[in-house]
Amino acid sequence: MRTTEKPRKSANGAGSTDDDLTQRRRKEIADGACVVFDQRGYANTRIADISDHLGVGQGTIYRYFTGKEDLMDHIVGHAVRRILAAMREDGVGDSPVRTAAQFVDQITAVAHRLLDMAARESVLVRVLLVQAQAARPDAIDDLTDQLAVTTAGYLANGVESGYLREDLDTAAVADAMVGITMPAMRRVLRDQLDDAGREATARTIGRLIAYGAVEPEFAS
Amino acid sequence: MRTTEKPRKSANGAGSTDDDLTQRRRKEIADGACVVFDQRGYANTRIADISDHLGVGQGTIYRYFTGKEDLMDHIVGHAVRRILAAMREDGVGDSPVRTAAQFVDQITAVAHRLLDMAARESVLVRVLLVQAQAARPDAIDDLTDQLAVTTAGYLANGVESGYLREDLDTAAVADAMVGITMPAMRRVLRDQLDDAGREATARTIGRLIAYGAVEPEFAS
Amino acid sequence: MRTTEKPRKSANGAGSTDDDLTQRRRKEIADGACVVFDQRGYANTRIADISDHLGVGQGTIYRYFTGKEDLMDHIVGHAVRRILAAMREDGVGDSPVRTAAQFVDQITAVAHRLLDMAARESVLVRVLLVQAQAARPDAIDDLTDQLAVTTAGYLANGVESGYLREDLDTAAVADAMVGITMPAMRRVLRDQLDDAGREATARTIGRLIAYGAVEPEFAS
Amino acid sequence: MRTTEKPRKSANGAGSTDDDLTQRRRKEIADGACVVFDQRGYANTRIADISDHLGVGQGTIYRYFTGKEDLMDHIVGHAVRRILAAMREDGVGDSPVRTAAQFVDQITAVAHRLLDMAARESVLVRVLLVQAQAARPDAIDDLTDQLAVTTAGYLANGVESGYLREDLDTAAVADAMVGITMPAMRRVLRDQLDDAGREATARTIGRLIAYGAVEPEFAS
DNA sequence: TATGAATGAGCGTTCATTCAT
DNA sequence: CATGAATGAACGCTCATTCAT
């Protein structure tokens, strides 16, 4: 007989102080949950594991999230926002891309930011890439779609500007560019790519996308 | 995750006929389980769901597999073998790659085979990419590692043959090539890429890897 | 993520044997639950209490009922049917009531049957009267309504036949008659009314309804 | 049902002012709890529901009652006292019953007072009749016992005075009289009996008890 | 060999109660 | 005195696994 309306977190009429505290607490809990999800896997994680990890009672978690699912939703949402932010903070407007060299730099910069983010927030990214896949498949599809759309926009600009091939299938290439950094990110998550390696890999990706792997004088 | 000793499937002492029958049965069950895992997700799938789908008793499944985990192990192993086979059945020996054009064809062919496999065996591939991620993360890492190593071999051959840039970071580029088809595969799994689309996408990938996206006269 | 359709008891295509077995099992479990609900109170009864009482696993109960609520529903439904049956098995058709004496006998008989039922099935009746009140208030209202309607029918017949006062408020009197045996039933449930006491009480009720408590020569 | 010693409300050493305030507060809380118990059912009511309804903190309730059980105890006790008062405020001493007509008036008056009370304090009465049944079965038994004993006293007086049948089973008839208004009270609680209806029903009950339902000339 | 009813450990979630502020 | 965030014991329910038939 669960007809009971969950008594909604009372819209507190006071200032935002309480709200801030609540938000801080939510973040603490979500972060802790993220760590445990990463260590044990989403399905194998009991709420008690999370509360133990945080050093709080199980009930406390339910004061801030409606359940395990809600917890994962927030983590995924947060991770997606961070990734999109990392990809977009590229100052495109600041220095418009007009040449092939700038295009390489742009791709390199984006790849570099993504790899660095994977390094800095490996737990969050690992949960997104590994755990959320099965738990929130649609969220992952949405993320890759958005990444691809943004990328396709850059490419269209390049074609228009003339520095990219006129016949470029921007949609397909955008997809390719989204996928191209994934294995490198996975290596970062496995600690197989240090600071220098990330930079080198980002540059390799930039050049590969721009000029391809073929020795120029062999290019048909 | 029982601590009790799993009663090992007795090495069956009978002839190979029985063994064949057993193998056939195992395959039937694994295939059925795969379909259900895909539909409901691994964690949400109950053994009863699988036995219902197969029209057998629950106990029967335990006569062929030690449990749900074992079932997923076999599916993952099978899927990995199929993917590796798809990537390698490229008849490299038949016609050695010696020119950039052949290189493009080779990449295009591999990408095409992977995309076609995703189309033909979408259930298997989807389970591998979506469900197995969380259930068997190491298996996925192993798969991508093997794909990368194989690819790196091809690339090394290209550098040696002279048609690929001398300074090519074969390891990084191999990783990139592994990742590059993933988004396209996901589109195939979402039915967003038909026969013709798969062929076009494969060719786009081949050309991108070989020559890059930049208009040649703008290069450098 | 409880999207899972409960796999409905498969409509078994075979004969009714299995169905009978299932029904027998359901009855066993419902009966056991009834005893425990009576002893401990519905709210204080844990599923484990019931399964312990029955000597079965907790899961077994869920093979036959969807939960604690369902269990109570069945008990209440069964109890209501029994009570209505007890009240109606009065062979009205057999010997139509035509005189005041027959009317007394009829009321006496109904009251007697209700009291005897309370004695024979005290657990069932006690659960209905005590536990179901809070758990299924509507069911109790429905029951009393039906009892009242049936009773009102008898009374209307009596008015028509002439042996009951012409100005009788049949609805109100029906209600009164429904209530009049309740305290006696409660005494039966408390073992305060033995066989003879039940018979005497039933007759007292019959006479009271028919002739009232006032000494005739004092009437009006 | 905690085994720990409930920290007894310290016998407050201060003046009676504080005591009055305390009593007022207790009453407010008990009244609020009563409303919520009625709306949601005792078992489904959380302390938070009550504190929300009252607009106070949960802890406040524990300053005035030791817990949910204690709250219900007080409500039941209060309700029982009110009902007994309603039944006894009949001014028996004022005008002793000596005739059948007075007897009818007396019964009618008592029934009327009970029905009016159910109308005026429907929440309290509904909680007593519906919720307390399962929560405090003994309290209900005690109440009906007391009502029956009081009633039996009146009847004994009537027999002695001669206006009631000499052979009247006063105990059984007292029980019957206690039960006879119950269905009508339930109708009042369900809003199925307005002011006039209650008066008419009370009179019907009075006459029924006194003279029965049988048309006098058909008697015997 | 195949079955599926039975099992019970395990987990998500709730909520009465406490206590620091 | 009042509060309400925190707690964690308790319980309903699920489902992987077993085993008698």
Please give a structural write-up.
The structure is a homotetramer of 220-residue chains. By secondary structure, chain A is mostly helical. Helices cover 71% and strands 0% of the residues of chain A. The first copy, chain A, has helices at residues 17-40, 47-54, 58-64, 68-88, 100-120, 122-135, 137-161, 170-180, 182-189, 195-211. In chain A, α5 runs antiparallel to α10. Chain A starts with 16 loop residues before the first helix and ends in a 9-residue tail after the last helix. Chains in contact: A-B, A-D, B-C, C-D. Chains A and B meet through α5, α6, α7, α8 and α9 of A and α5, α6, α7, α8 and α9 of B. The structure holds a DNA duplex (21 and 21 nucleotides).
Q: How would you describe this structure in keywords?
A:
homotetramer; mainly alpha; Arc Repressor Mutant, subunit A; Tetracycline Repressor, domain 2; DNA-binding
